[in-house]
Design a protein that fits this description.
Blueprint (H helix, E strand, L loop, with lengths): L1 E9 L2 E6 L3 E6 L13 E7 L2 E7 H4 L12 E7 L2 E7 L1 E9 L18 E7 L2 E6 L6 H10 L1
Parallel strand pairs: 2-10, 5-7
Antiparallel strand pairs: 1-2, 1-8, 3-6, 4-5, 6-7, 9-10
Amino acid sequence: MTRQLITFQIADKLLGVDIMAIREIRAWTPTTTIPHAPSFVRGVVNLRGTVLPVIDLSERLGWGATDPTGRHVIIVLQIEAQLHGLIVDSVNDIVTIEEAEMQPPPELCHGSTGNFLEGLIAVEDRMAMVLHLRCMAVGSFAMMAEAA
């Protein structure tokens, strides 16, 4: 079975998400911070009347906080019933993959960040990390933090 992913960059890392979850890709917009939110929740923005939580994906995955500029983008995803925004450096391409080609994350990845990976896939000469979207929801972050 084939599947389409949108690939994107965070620093030199290549990641991907299922194209069916993407609602839009928008330019970086400054956020309004929320008191007592986890540090990886950058804040919220108004998306045509909807409050959109914006997640600093780099910080959440342990790669350091992003200092967003006009060159960054927000990928708006629908995860379960809620919209979420992910700050990324840039969007690369749409790739079509075969489900059978996706490899599970190595055992050493299980733990705080490994739960966020659905698998790994070769894209040209690089490995792309495919995100597990249910673990990307802000509510899931809170539950994972309590469990840790």
